């Protein structure tokens, strides 16, 4: 954080050339001339705002809410929350920036229109690192004219970031305007608030980009404001900047006028926004250009516009698809949608209403350079951010406690929206393995939190943006989408969105909308409500395991539930309302998801209708957010069925069975040998989703066994699984025209394993393809580039390595550069890897194009690719001078992270000796605690072989080999 020690920078001065009829000029003290937009917020004309919009504030929002929906947790310090005696109605913000020179300084004036709803002698807003120069207060009379109310003094609470203005008297109920003059600095060390980025254009000139990231509590870094999600208001923005640059914001530009005070500058004026949360305001100042399609635009640096077509196409298709899906037209509220690709943003994106911002890797696509994974990532992230235009922008959470109402929906509709726009790609096939199964890991610990969770400090609020908010919440919402039926779910979402439009929401508002859509439709059992069912999932941490114990004599089964922990069994009082359905060998219908039963108690006996010699499988298509365990005999019948014909069981359930079986075994709930037996069917598996689940299992054992005496036995097992599938792939270095997206995923996964475990044919093809690429100076097809480059580098000459490095350093595409960095880390020549590391640490004219994030990525690529990289890292950083330079470039935290990762990849006595020598060489550069933690990690790795799991798995692989 930047402390407000810096001096006051120049302030916007002068009277604008044109005044609208509803504007007036006020002269404040200190001869500062300010423009105030005197428009009553209650009558503000906002494009697309419906006549049914809610009032600016009401008793429901600020009265104590019932315990069932209150976002406030009395055990958490609520002093960080703003008082509720004043509420904003509109902001008029005027900013001045010289960022085109690389200057970080900016100045601003904000008119905060607000209502006093409880008489008060203090106006409390948020501020972070802004230097306040002056403030003036005005009251609005009945005609909307302003009456001077004095110049309040202010005080700042650094802990709560609350800026309090004291007018010197009690303000009666009414409407007011607080005008604040301030200055600040653009951020360069973090991508938050108003921050500065840059790029190098085709003429070799560095050009600067000013951009914003206000979620969750960073709007206060650009202007003093009520920086809480429920305190919505309209925003009118003016930005003064150099004339050769342009500005973009949530709303269209109304006019661009020359600046009277600054020669060569212009002021870009934007129209007023609809009522929205402060964190959704966004703007950018740059020399970017736009590609347009109707009411949509994609902004990017001029030398990247040839990569903008797919991102714009996806925006148009997905926005139309989601408008149709929700029955709520985006353009009823906003006149345009802009997308903006920010260089060197790192990753991620932000859903600002009408101006969505992305890292370049999340929006720009060059089919000649970028892979199928980049294209898929763009489609899904665009759909994720555009889903937010409804879930988060049109309707936002009343407080961050309910951030899952934003991120859970965006997580789910990122995949659904992409699938609707591009049905042939089958993006939905990836949802469970990338989200449901991803959520299961962190949600199986003691430290996990429920979906609804209060937080008040900025750091705690940021911590809510986790796997629970995204993956788990999306998975739970999808479960109820399937239970209620997609048509009913859509109808309920329409009710929810229209009831809470331009307002805040709590979980009960969603439940009410969904309930309204299913009333009188016999969707749920009698006596059950949406709220009752969903609360059991949203208000409790963790998730259940559904255990199915069959009685093979009479066809019945006992279903029971308990909370699943990854490393123990522990009593838990919570009862989830678990929707379940099942298929059997005699009725293998996995497609019909219209009929669910409910387990609403700890245990229940049911009739399955299945005979003793047929398998049953619960949780069809893994639509439910829970694991399923069976008795050993049913697991055995499932494994036999998979070996005979995998297609009789749905591919999503095949992935589920693998993921569940492995994690249940690791938690001691059934025999690990059953899991390893189950996986043996994979030699006949040609769908990606099951292999994606299996990949996690195989990686687990690879990391445990690599470098040990048991590794050979494991490789024999892997060979039996992947061999037949690899043989079916043919040429892994080419891409047939008719190859589908999921075929590409499968080919990369299988060929990666084949090369990793030393398949001669795999290594021959990749080495030959790399050699040909170097000889002809022609990169390989991007869809096979990672495998070819990564494994082609085994035994590559220095010239070949240099060629690949040059491909990276000369590329103007961030996604391609990232892939090539990852591939360069795969080298098995220590001198090549050390040379790459010194590039990341050092600097010269050739390397000025390296982004900070790319330097860090080089470091992680070296130790992540294999033991060769780990040993290269040890060798390089054992040099005291290079280690000092490393810390100077990356900081102490990165060195600690390197030590931790080296330790986690240390598996035998010889490697332990190398680690101990490395720690000794680092000396005082690391703390004794860091060194001790590294040694403990290695000892834990070694101790695994003496655990039940370790002995059982190594015995299994040995028996399999023999």
TrEMBL record:
**Spans annotated as Disordered:** 58-83
Where do the ERAP1-like C-terminal domain residues begin and end? Answer: 615-924
**Its topology with respect to the membrane?**
Lipid-anchor; GPI-anchor
Any single GO molecular-function term of the entry would be: zinc ion binding
**Alphabetical list of InterPro entries matching this protein:** Aminopeptidase_N-like_N, Aminopeptidase_N-like_N_sf, ERAP1-like_C_dom, M1_APN-typ, Peptidase_M1, Peptidase_M1_aminopeptidases, Peptidase_M1_dom, Peptidase_M4/M1_CTD_sf
Q: Where is this site: Transition state stabilizer?
A: 470
Give me any GO biological process, just one: peptide catabolic process
The free-text note explaining how the cofactor binds reads:
Binds 1 zinc ion per subunit.
Listed name of the protein? Aminopeptidase
Q: Which organism is it from?
A: Anopheles coluzzii (African malaria mosquito)
């Amino acid at each position: 954080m930047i402390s407000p020690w810096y001096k006051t920078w120049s302030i916007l001065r002068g009277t604008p050339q044109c005044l609208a009829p509803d504007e007036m000029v006020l002269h404040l003290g200190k001869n500062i001339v300010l423009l105030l937009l005197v428009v009553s917020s209650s009558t503000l004309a906002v494009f697309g705002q419906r006549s049914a919009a809610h009032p600016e504030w009401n008793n429901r929002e600020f009265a104590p809410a019932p315990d069932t929906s209150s976002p406030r947790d009395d055990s958490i310090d609520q002093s960080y929350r703003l008082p509720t005696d004043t509420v904003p109605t509109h902001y008029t913000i005027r900013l001045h920036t010289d960022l085109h020179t690389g200057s970080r300084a900016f100045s601003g004036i904000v008119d905060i229109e607000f209502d006093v709803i409880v008489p008060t002698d203090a106006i409390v807003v948020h501020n972070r690192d802004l230097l306040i120069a002056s403030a003036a207060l005005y009251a609005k009379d009945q005609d909307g004219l302003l009456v001077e109310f004095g110049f309040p003094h202010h005080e700042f609470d650094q802990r709560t970031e609350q800026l309090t203005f004291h007018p010197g008297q009690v303000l009666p109920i009414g409407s007011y305007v607080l005008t604040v003059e301030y200055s600040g600095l653009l951020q360069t060390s973090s991508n938050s608030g108003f921050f500065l980025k840059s790029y190098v254009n085709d003429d070799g000139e560095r050009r600067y980009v000013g951009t914003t990231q206000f979620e969750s509590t960073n709007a206060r870094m650009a202007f003093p404001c009520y920086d809480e999600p429920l305190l919505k208001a309209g925003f009118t923005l003016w930005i003064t900047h150099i004339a050769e640059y342009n500005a973009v914001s949530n709303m269209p530009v109304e006019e661009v006028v020359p600046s009277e005070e600054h020669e060569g500058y212009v002021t870009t004026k934007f129209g007023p926004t609809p009522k929205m949360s402060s964190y959704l305001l966004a703007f950018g100042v740059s020399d970017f250009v736009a590609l347009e399609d109707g009411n949509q635009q994609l902004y990017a640096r001029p030398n990247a516009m040839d990569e903008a077509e797919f991102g714009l196409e996806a925006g148009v298709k997905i926005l139309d698809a989601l408008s149709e899906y929700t029955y709520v037209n985006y353009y009823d509220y906003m006149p345009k949608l802009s997308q903006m690709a920010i260089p060197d943003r790192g990753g991620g994106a932000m859903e600002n209403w009408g101006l969505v911002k992305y890292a370049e890797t999340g929006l720009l696509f060059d089919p000649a350079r970028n892979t199928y994974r980049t294209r898929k990532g763009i489609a899904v992230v665009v759909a994720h951010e555009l889903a937010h235009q409804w879930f988060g922008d049109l309707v936002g959470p009343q407080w961050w406690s309910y951030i899952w109402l934003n991120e859970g929906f965006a997580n789910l509709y990122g995949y659904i929206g992409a699938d609707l726009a591009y049905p042939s790609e089958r993006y939905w096939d990836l949802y469970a393995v990338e989200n449901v199964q991803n959520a299961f890991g962190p949600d199986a610990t003691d430290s996990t939190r429920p979906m609804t969770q209060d937080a008040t400090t900025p750091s705690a609020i940021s911590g809510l943006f986790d796997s629970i908010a995204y993956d788990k919440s999306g998975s739970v919402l999808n479960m109820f989408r399937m239970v209620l039926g997609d048509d009913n779910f859509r109808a309920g979402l329409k009710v929810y969105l229209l009831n809470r439009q331009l307002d805040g929401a709590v979980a009960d508002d969603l439940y009410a909308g969904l309930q309204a859509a299913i009333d009188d439709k016999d969707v749920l059992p009698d006596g059950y409500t949406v709220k009752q069912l969903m609360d059991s999932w949203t208000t409790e941490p963790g998730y259940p395991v559904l255990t199915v114990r069959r009685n093979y004599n009479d066809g019945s089964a006992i279903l029971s539930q308990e909370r699943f922990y990854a490393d123990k069994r522990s009593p838990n009082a919570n009862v989830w309302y678990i929707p379940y359905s099942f298929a059997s060998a005699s009725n293998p219908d996995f497609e019909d998801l219209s009929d669910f039963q409910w387990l609403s108690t700890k245990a229940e006996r049911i009739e399955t209708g299945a005979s003793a010699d047929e398998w049953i499988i619960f949780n069809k298509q893994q639509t439910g957010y829970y694991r399923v365990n069976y008795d050993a005999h049913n697991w055995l019948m499932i494994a036999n069925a998979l070996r005979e014909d995998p297609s009789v069981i749905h591919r999503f359930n095949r992935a589920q069975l693998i993921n569940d079986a492995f994690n249940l075994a690791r938690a001691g709930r059934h025999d690990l040998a059953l899991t390893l037996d189950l996986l043996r069917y994979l030699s006949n598996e040609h769908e990606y989703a099951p292999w994606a689940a299996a990949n996690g299992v195989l990686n687990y054992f690879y990391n445990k066994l690599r470098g040990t005496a048991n590794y050979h036995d494991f490789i024999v097992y892997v060979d039996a699984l992947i061999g037949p599938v690899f043989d079916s792939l043919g040429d892994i270095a080419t891409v047939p025209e008719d190859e589908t997206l999921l075929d590409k995923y499968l080919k990369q996964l299988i060929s990666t394993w084949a090369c990793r475990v030393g398949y001669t044919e795999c290594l021959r093809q990749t080495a030959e393809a790399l050699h040909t690429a170097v000889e002809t100076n022609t990169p390989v097809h991007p869809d096979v580039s990672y495998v070819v480059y990564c494994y082609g580098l085994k035994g590559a000459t220095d010239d070949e390595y240099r060629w690949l490095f040059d491909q990276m350093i000369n590329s103007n595409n961030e996604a391609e550069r990232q892939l090539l960095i990852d591939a360069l880390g795969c080298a098995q020549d220590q001198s090549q890897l050390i040379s790459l590391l010194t590039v990341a640490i050092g600097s010269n004219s050739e390397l000025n194009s390296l982004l900070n994030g790319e330097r860090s990525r080089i470091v992680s690529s070296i130790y992540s690719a294999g033991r060769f990289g780990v040993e290269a890292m040890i060798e390089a950083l054992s040099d005291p001078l290079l280690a000092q330079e490393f810390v100077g470039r990356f900081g102490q935290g990165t060195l600690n992270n390197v030590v931790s990762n080296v330790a986690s990849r240390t598996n035998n006595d010889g490697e332990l000796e190398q680690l101990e020598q490395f720690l000794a060489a680092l000396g005082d550069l690391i703390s004794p605690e860091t060194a001790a933690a590294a040694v403990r990690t290695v000892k834990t790795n070694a101790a695994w072989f003496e655990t039940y799991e370790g002995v059982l798995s190594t015995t299994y692989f040995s028996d399999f080999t023999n």
